[in-house]
Amino acid sequence: MGSSDKKFIIELPLKVVLTENGASNFISNNKKLLRFRLADNVDEYGISLNKFSPQSIQSMILVDYISKMEISMSEFVSSRQEVMDLSKVIVYSLLYKQFDREVYAALIQCECVTKHNRANPSHLIDEKTKLSDRQLKSTLQSKENIIQQTRKNILDPIWKSIMANKDFTAEEKNIYLLMSEKFMNRLGLMNWYIITLFHKSDGANEMFLAIRNLLNSYMEKSKVAEYISVMVMELALNNENTNIRKAARNMYQGIDDIDSLIYDPEVRAKIVQELQRNHELVFLSWKLGGGSTSIGKQGRLSITLYNKSDEFQEVKENIDNAKSSNTAKKTLIDFYRELPEGQEGTDLGLYYLSYLDDACKKVNVKFESLVNQFTASDLTVITLNFNF
Question: Measured between alpha carbons, how far is 59 from 40 in angstroms, rounded to an integer?
Answer without folding.
Answer: 26
